[in-house]
Amino acid sequence: MAPFYRNLFLLVLFFSSAIVAGFAQQATDPLVTGNYSNAAFSHFVKDLEAQTKFTFYYDVAVTDSVTIDIQATAQPLSQVLTQALQGTELRFAISDQKQVFITSEKQILTSLPDNFFNNGSRGTETDNTQLAELYLPQLNKKKKTGSEIKLYEIGNAGSNQAKANLAGTIRDSNTGEPIIGAYVYIESPTIGTASDQYGYYSITLPVGRHELKIRGVGLKNSKRQVLLHSDGKLDIEMEEDVRSLKEVLVEAEKDKNVSGLQMGMERLDIRTIKQVPTAFGETDILRVVLTLPGVKSVGEGSTGMNVRGGSTDQNLILLNDAVIYNPSHLFGFFSAFNPDVLKSVELYKSAVPARYGGRLSSVLEVTTREGNKKQFSGAGGIGLLTSRLTLEGPIIKDKTSFLLGGRTTYSDWVLKQLPNKSFKNSEASFYDINAHISHEIDSKNSVYFTGYLSKDRFKLDADTLYRFKNQNASIKWKHNFHNKLYSVVTGTHSHYSYDISNEGNAVNASTLAFGINQSNLQVDLNYFPNEKHTVDFGASSIFYQSSPGSLTPHSPESLIKTDIVQKEKAVESAVYISDRYDISPRLSLSVGLRYSMFNALGPRDVFTYAPGIPKTESSMTDTISYSSGKAIATYHGPEFRLSARYNLTDNSSVKLSYNRLRQYVHMLSNTASMSPTDTWKLSDGNIKPQVGDQVAIGYYRNFRANTIEFSAETYYKWMQDFLDYRSGASIIMNHHIETDVANAEGKAYGLELMVKKATGKLNGWMSYTYSRTLVRVNDPSTSEIINRGEYYPGNYDKPHDFTLISNYRFSQRFSTSLNFTYSTGRPITLPIAKYYDGTTQRILYSDRNQYRIPDYYRVDFAMNIEGNHKMKKLAHSSWTVAVYNLTGRKNPYSIYFKSDKNTIRGYKMSIFGQPIPTVTYNFKF
Amino acid sequence: MKFLNWNKTIGWLMMLLVSSCVEPYSPEVLEGPNSYLVVNGFINTNGPTTVQLIRTQNLKDETPPPAEINAIVQIESEEGENYRLWGTGNGNYTSSNLELNPASKYRLYIRTAIGKEYASEYVTVKRTPAIDEITWEPIDDEVQVYVNTHDPNNDTRYYRWEFEETWHYRAAFGTGLKYVNGKIELRDRNDPDIYNCWTSDNSTTIELGTSIRLTQDVISNYKLTAIPYDSEKIAIKYSILVKQYALTREAYAYWETLKKNTENIGTLFDPLPSQLTGNIKSLSDPNEPVIGYVTASTMQQKRIFIGYEELPREWKTFIPRCSIDTMLLAISTPREYFEGGYVMPVYEVYPPEGGGMFPIGYSYATVDCVDCRTRGTNVKPDFWE
């Protein structure tokens, strides 16, 4: 048995080594004739290749000192070679594919697989068994991950290229999942690249022998011995880094901080995210994203994020490339992403790659896992308010896998148990389902399907029912043309809708509904022409269909008039190209251009307004009807993307970026937090698209052998034509929203400092941000003037922000995390005076956002207790015990003033005003 | 048993999680130049117009609102007619009975004593349809009062209501005695009635309604107010006078914003307080805030009465909280007790078992419990049925 496995294993190794596979077991031994005297080895080989049509594979470095003295007349090739190589360290093997492998005895490993194969076909010079026994113990230790000491020969020897391309997919050896962002590099000269979202890497190296090192978050560092002749493939499997008592050897994306070209980007791995305690004990990616420098939210219980002074609708939130319009559940207390199906989250705050567009402030790319390609497994968690379960496994081993995750809450049931009457009449429930299938058709083609559904339902008073849902589907086809060029064709569909039903009074019983659909087709191509350039280009087109609102009677007695705001349609298209150019090892440049175009389409009736005065109902002049498919308004413009990096030293660099983004859809919300009743509006003749520009510059430095990363980034941002609201704006069921909004211009600037320690017993990050966001509404010809046309702080302007996320691992089974967050209170409009309006005292408010609410700070603590680490048991489980808001600070969520009788009282409402303990049980099988 | 405990635990945790906590909050005193002109009132196109000019105050200022006196106030039409309003004290200015042209547009012009000029925009005249009905219903331990109206021309669409509540109430203890110069005397018919009183209260909330989303211009059962079952208002007889004003869309928006700013803020999804821009501007300094929104309309009103006998029988209506005590002449004199006027005699206390003809003391209660005039008037309103 043992030899069988041994042989099988070697076979696997051999195939993965990318030397041309498939040796038939029949061989011919052609006769050769020649007269060589002190001939160069390469000359000798060329001559033989010419005579035999056999291809020779050899290492130039090993053979260049060898000279050949031999005379042969119609002798078999094997005999000639035996003679020729006598006295040298070289050995040879001949395959049935008319290939001859010349190897050096010193590097016996090279010849081992060769000889193994030849062993089955013909006599060889080397004793396989002996060699195998010598090396197998080490190989077994490495399990299936591929050998770190084996030499992989890539490509055909004899091509005279100075450089060659190596590409492949990096996967997890346990699950077969591709690994994103693993860093693949050689040390001299320093050439490196990172795997993309498909785990694909492509690196151009000088031909010859290299030690290829591979590192990734949560993975054991690995390396491959590579002998590169010409372009070839090398798929790499890496082992997960099992939590160990010793210093963890993870050096996540080692010096990406310094040497990566991308700036203003944060990648969070699900492992990191899981360590951060949250209010309900449920891993919440959006809440972790909110701890990153430059990301803020208006308040607790709101997952709407404000990135570098942008509003909550300026974030492109993608789940496997499909846009998510509402990323939260239950008023934003939970994020809409099930942590168990997620792989990673990437947030781009600046230098947004050209392939993304359509939102002004950021791109948040959420990627789900592909599912385990090797074996069936599952994971789940039971928390106080929610439970979740994820199943995954292969459909066809190593080729097709599925991933299915679901999450639901029993808060509805809990509410019913409460003695309080108003809670009993309330309902709150949600669920979400993720499904993912990935299939590898062949080595060049893969397809991925993703489906996502999330639904919420809650009833606050006894008579108003809110419901909302996200539905997403995406299909992706990845095709490798060759090592240097691959394409991804993506089709996605996103749907978001909500409805609010009022059932209290029969006369007013009604349903208010909103919905938006977007279908997106996108082609992205990645081209790696040589080691200095990486070119991305592609095109995309989005078709929007929105039903901005409908109000329909809900009972026969209802007097509600059916009212439907006209549907809106539009197409947003873009083409882009970007080139990353590594000018020298120290200087890299990425230049990109995206050209986007937006067409608002009929059928629709559009109001026109008298020019030069604010758009109001009284300034309406005409109504123009557009027929179906006719363009109502067209906007287009270039979006420039530029970034550059200069390495000051080996462990420090400076980066610079500029980008422009255009946004054609706008969220309408007159409330401070992101609420499910916000609607989305497409640009049209009366609502212009938003345009934003950002310049950022950063300094990056790594300390202590790249274990501590430091970064300082500063930015300045301009925004035009984003929407602010006129006083008393009415958003819902408004047939002419342009009369209630104001075109605002904004500027934001800030400095973000971050120190991150990704490894070690103690890990985490610490960040400080100083930032300002200022808004101005000062165009009397389009709307009313706010604050006399001066700049005023935006709703989410919080100048000082400090965050500490720390994690300390006491033992393999016990770790703790402690988080601390501080930020300046957000701006508020305060009452400055009181007056009588005849009978009642009323209040007069200050200028918009003139004052601030008290500062915010919060301490969270969590303990994670793992079950034992026996390899073989039914399920691996862990307990998370966490306390949110440990000090019980009553952070204001909202401050408001009410006039009650003849007095005016100020109130401060805090939602998580006491320490909140939670317990979650997680399992994995 | 164990299961029940578990439920309680979860319930308790849930409460902890979802129960938000509201605390009083008072920011640092906001000092500033905040004495802005406030204009209250509307242009009555069919009757006398009364406008009140006062000034805003600092939030912590406890003095009565400063009135703007000696100003020149007039109603001006676009055609150039003007009608003077005359100061009647307290910042109030009243015109004579006017009959304004509903097809014209009017504005309010103000020139203060120090010579600052203010004017509203010219506003169109809205005709207010009559109130159809004021109805009420006892629901959930309270009396809910509704207004119903409609405009057959479907022309009004926006409404605002004010109301004045008046109710009859009695002192907790009726007395036949009075204290005069150190003596207790019997009350006679020349003494004022201190047992039956009436008092009034103006609405303090902004009541707005619109039929804009309905196929007809109908306001059906708009809830104006609710009176708890144990309120003194409905202990004997209650009356409500509802005043109805038609609004323009812009005026409606103004009142709605004012309502949002001061009444509706504080839950999770409420809008931010927004600036209030009225339709009155300073002619001398365009950046000077002026508070108020001038509309021009007719006014419609209707009154109803609710007697306690119409309320559900099971309701235990208002019971005054008053205690009664006794003073004995053997220990003290009436002067010592009643001279200060804080307490009043209620009835005589005689010795037990016919021990004598003369009172040995008096029961007494605080003046609030005996003299109803401390909280209202004993003059029966003219309209009282």
Counting copies of identical and different chains, the oligomeric state is heterodimer
Distance between termini of chain B? 61 Å
Major pleated sheet of chain A = 22 strands, antiparallel, barrel
The share of residues in extended strands of chain B comes to 35-45%
CATH architecture descriptor text of the largest domain in chain A: Beta Barrel
Discrete helix count of chain A:
11
Low-confidence stretches of chain B: 1-16, 265-269
Whole-angstrom Rg of chain A:
32 Å
CATH uppermost class of the largest domain in chain A: Mainly Beta
CATH topology of the largest domain in chain A, what is it called?
A: Maltoporin, Chain A
CATH superfamily name of the largest domain in chain A?
A: TonB-dependent receptor, beta-barrel domain
N- to C-terminal separation of chain A? 30 Å
The structural domain count of chain A equals 3
Low-confidence region ranges of chain A: 1-27, 106-145, 243-254
Provide a descriptive summary of the structure in words:
- The complex is a heterodimer of chains A (925) and B (385).
- Chain A has three domains: 90 residues, Phage tail protein beta-alpha-beta fold (3-Layer(bab) Sandwich), CATH 3.55.50; 99 residues, Immunoglobulin-like (Sandwich), CATH 2.60.40.1120; 660 residues, Maltoporin, Chain A (Beta Barrel), CATH 2.40.170.
- Chain A has eleven helices and 57 strands.
- In chain A, α5 crosses α6.
- In chain A, the strands form 13 sheets. Chain A has a 22-stranded antiparallel beta barrel. A five-stranded mixed β-sheet of chain A has the order 6-12-11-8-9, with no helix packed on it. A five-stranded mixed β-sheet of chain A has the order 15-22-23-18-19.
- Chain A has 925 residues and is mainly β.
- Chain B is mainly beta and 385 residues long.
- In chain B, a hairpin with a 5-residue loop joins β10 and β11.
- The longest helix of chain B is centred in the N-terminal third of the chain and has 17 residues.
- Chains A and B meet through α10, β50, β51, β55 and β56 of A and α1, β1, β2, β5 and β20 of B.
- Chain B: InterPro entries: DUF4249 (IPR025345).
